Amino acid sequence: MKVLVTGAAGFIGYHVCEALLARGAEVMGVDDLNPYYDVRLKQARLQRLGKGFSFQQLDIADHEAVRLVADGAEAILHVAAQAGVRYSLENPFAYAAANLTGHLSILELARHSKSVKHLIYASSSSVYGTGSTLPYAESERADRPSSLYAATKRADELMSSSYTHLFGLKQTGLRFFTVYGPWGRPDMAYFGFAEAMTAGKPITLYANGTLKRDFTYIDDIIAGVMGVLDHPPGDEAPHRVFNIGNHRAEYVQDLVALLERHLGVKAKTVDLPKPEADPVETCADISALHALCGYAPSTRLDDGIPRFVEWYKYWRERRGDV
Question: CATH number of the domain that 103 lies in?
Fold first, then answer.
């Protein structure tokens, strides 16, 4: 099987590529290697992808360049995006380019391809906004995004729906819930906390760490993505959207306690009120994805964080911090 993976140098994209290669797939990866976070980490991920993997550096918002890369792919796993809720306040046009124009580029690529049979794309739990009923179910209207990032991801879902209606394009959208683990993103809270704690700097906790998040370990996420790949949509429901999370909300303060234990460092904390765009709690209803492919995440936070910390210590040494 030949698969195109966008955002191949990113956290989820790298792990998707690794899983596909382990299956014997031929993987074509694209990524623009933008400096939103340390490019050395992105390059290190790519260096770990060996036989069967090819890579092209390009910006998916460049639709003319994207048009040339499918080259016989049977499936596209589109996980490239400008991530981060708060950064959208600083650089909104980066979100319009990567998440809107970029998504449209991939839709056009899939639409005109003679080989692509299934487009799987990344959405986000952020589309539910701050007022949805817990646990979040796909049946929620998701029409009250509380950040520009969330609005772009919901717009991607709507664009995909229209392309399925117009052109019969078979697609699956995945609403990811707070993914964490080795080779993760430095802009995520757990990674940023580890960085600050090891440097002896304070970390910011909102509402004294009492916010709750559906932390989902990367291996469980990849198992779900592969399950979706193995169960493509049929004609009766050619465009589907699924939650992909852990179905277990954990306090942020418990995450910090686990980091303290496994890093061997006591966190210095600064308490601030909850930002308006942040929900008090997130939790995924994963029954639909379970019914499709048996998706059943099994990694608890107290198992996943030690694995992250073990990798993090390796990464600090590799980049020369210790």
Answer: 3.40.50.720
